[in-house]
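Please, structure for the following, as tokens.
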Amino acid sequence: MSLLEEVKWAGVIGAGGAGFPTHVKLEAKAEYILLNGAECEPLLRVDQQLMALYSDEIIRGFAAAGRQVGAQKALMGIKGKHREVIRQMRERIAALGQEEFVSVKELPDVYPAGDEQFLVHALTGRVVPEAGIPIQVGCVVVNSETALNIYHASQGKPVTEKYLTVTGDVPRRLTVKVPVGTPILDVLRLSGIEDFEEYAVIDGGPMMGPVLQNLNGFITKKNKGFVILKKKHPLIRKKTVKPEQAKRINRSSCEQCRMCTDLCPRYLLGHNMQPHKMMRSVAYSLENTEEQKMAFLCCQCNLCELFSCPAGLYPKAANLSIKQRLIEQKIRYQTEKTEFSPRTVREHRLIPSKRLIARLGLHDFDQPAPMTAIALHPAQFSFSMSQHVGAPCTPAVTVGQHVQAGEPVGQVPQSSLGAAVHASISGTVTECQSGAVVIKGD
């Protein structure tokens, strides 16, 4: 098989949380391939440790992906604070004879350095157009763990394991490798907490991750980590405000100071994203649809709500409510510009990670979460058929069938966007529905 076929068969997706099928990205032709090793969400520790532990595999997978897309250069973006990781990656790139093609570029320790459009500009100087994607400026972006999975795919190994950081207000902070399909509660209990009655769990990073409403789910290929905090923590209170409550607060309190716009990463890249205007539209029930279309440009980084607004309001919620209304009206954003340049003040308005962590009230929890070998033995595993962007998979097994670890249990419908799902353990299928396949381990 070609690398493209191997990646498609292995079910590789964007491991940073987006879940876009990687084989589709690798069908493009690009000038640059970029490695997103920024891991800019506070407290998460997966990518920095993977690059230290599996340098050769990540470099090989990344270089292979770069040659697949016909890239002239393969650039790795890693935060400068990870000096030892950078040193090691550069050393291994040279040892593997890849220095003419692959190189490491240092990123500032700011949020959101891991945003694709931020990364493209930081590594190439190019600006992705409004409502656009990196390929429009000749770039393909893959995450560090995705590059590792590309390498594994080239060796005939499908994606059946996930690396996760478990952190927060807990006795034990750690990063672990667990089988896809593992019960989330089993992973959360590795933190040293057994009873979660007084705790809330953020699925992903504290900035963009949602608060889980139910802890009885199962690990998917998209999970990146879990931040466990007391329910009374200000960040949890902020994230669990209902949309209608956020709307009432926005209407009553916004003073149009523009801070949400002045610190917006997309606005600073030269895009016409201005959250304060969305707040104005909500406050005064304005109906300027043409202006409101800019809501589609929001990248949902959450800086406006969790850092920028001095009054603690909800600009992102305003953006999302307007965007949803426009979608229902079948209205979309279309830009007339083709070239963009960053605003001159941009370099002075980037948000340092340490400052963000302090604002979030997470300073005491910004601790190492070392990679730890663990063995979990749940009674059953559940494999969602929707672990990716695109159409859900259709079950490839039947109830009562015995499957081996690595065997496909979900197949992508013909001519659809998606990624195959594989069993992470050997066992017997006990349930087989459109939404999930459940396997009892041997």
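The chain has a mean pLDDT of 96. The CA atoms of residues 383 and 437 lie 5 Å apart.
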